[in-house]
Amino acid sequence: MKNSILLGSLFLASFFMEAQNTAPLDTIFANDQKNVALFFPHPIRQGITGADNFVFTYNREKEQYFGLLQAKPGKASNLLVINTNGSIFSYIVSYREQLEKLIHFVPQSESIGFEQPKFTEGSDSTNVANLFTDKTFYYERFCSYLLTRKQKIGSIQKRKHGIVLSLENIVFDKEELYFVVKIENKSSLDYDLNFLDISTQTRKQGKKKSLQQISQLTNFKYNVPTKVDENQIKRMVYVLPKFSLSNDKMVVLELNEKNGERNIKLKVSNKYINNPN
Length: 277
Known about the structure:
The chain contains four helices and 19 strands. By secondary structure, it is of the alpha+beta class. It has two domains: 2-133, no CATH class; 156-274, Immunoglobulin-like (Sandwich). Strands 1, 3, 6, 7 and 9 form a five-stranded mixed β-sheet that branches. A five-stranded antiparallel β-sheet has the order 10-11-12-17-15, covered by helices on one side. Strands 13, 14, 16, 18 and 19 form a five-stranded antiparallel β-sheet that branches. Strand 11 (163-173) and strand 12 (176-185) form a beta hairpin. The longest helix has 14 residues, at 2-15. The radius of gyration is 22 Å and the shape is elongated. The two termini are 27 Å apart.
């Protein structure tokens, strides 16, 4: 997956060049101790790195002209940035322990082309454009990034028969909520996953109060396993449309075992849903 994304980014960058340019791409160095700021001539609409040891963050809710780059030790990769005016910028990114430059002001002249060029006869413009508009590509990159972060929303977990279900994080991005979930098998038997469902539930108030549970629509699921072997940990991400809850409601994560009875229901307070990271 990493190689295909990296190659796809490089292909798109070269495809959209308005003219042939044999000059090598500039290299931007970064590390995990400091933020390297990149200021662009137009607000950033999208930024993608080709490997998980590089993270490029920018404001996804409000258009801004700068993004921040960080890196962990590893092989060099690439950074592809698209501005709101369609300008495309491409750079090689590399880890370096000592940094000489922390701020880069990117001129428009460094753009390698535009997102919507004039295609030549015979070029498959539809397929190329779909690589940018296909939201699955964005989901996969952002979910992969979330699984590398150590950020947590709290200690939310439940254990049953050696199986531990945890909700590690809830992240808000582009009108959606990303649920980072962990399943840990501390038992001596493998755990075959039937399903993991996320629903909202009304809290019981009094003996006559009925309990209503409604499953939430899932826009995307990332890294969901079919089996968790003994002494193994699996982490995954569920993407749901943004929602909020009143004080009488909560979220329930229901883990169901295939051909087994080690089922878990993890209740999550509305305060975590209404205040995501």
